[in-house]
Specification:
mainly alpha, 3 helices
Length: about 150
């Protein structure tokens, strides 16, 4: 492998590396939200055991919303992680293909499409979580969560 080939491959790898960085920041944000959902669920579960039975309905509703949010965030984490993993495979594939002097454009295109698709799905789950979190806020404020 010649130096000019290495430089060209490094230039091609910059895009996926930027995707890794950006998706990593998205993943950080999602995991922070996930941690808050888990902490809030634990505190509400403890509260449920100490309050009167007339107030448990609201706490149970909030816990159900938090459980739904946790599932959405878990899926967002899984797809963001998959996107990062696919981007890493893409970088490795670029170098291996160049090293072996293979023609594998369809593999590179497929990995990139799957990487971007996973990131899009992750962001859709993230947006769904933001919308569901508004239901919990409405419930806490005494409104109907379906509004």
């Amino acid at each position: 492998m010649q130096l000019d080939q290495i430089i060209t491959t490094l230039q091609l790898a910059i895009g996926p590396v930027i995707v890794i960085s950006g998706a990593g920041l998205v993943l950080l944000s999602i995991t922070n939200r996930f941690g808050r959902v888990i902490d809030r669920s634990r505190s509400l579960a403890e509260l449920k055991h100490t309050i009167t039975s007339s107030n448990t309905h609201s706490v149970k509703d909030q816990l159900m919303i938090l459980m739904r949010r946790a599932r959405l965030l878990r899926m967002a984490i899984a797809f963001a992680s998959l996107s990062i993993l696919l981007a890493a495979f893409l970088v490795i594939s670029l170098f291996l293909i160049e090293l072996a002097n293979l023609e594998a454009a369809s593999l590179i295109i497929g990995l990139f499409i799957c990487c971007m698709g996973s990131l899009i799905v992750s962001l859709l789950f993230f947006i769904a979580d933001v919308n569901v979190s508004l239901s919990a806020l409405k419930l806490e404020m005494g409104g109907d969560p379906g509004d």
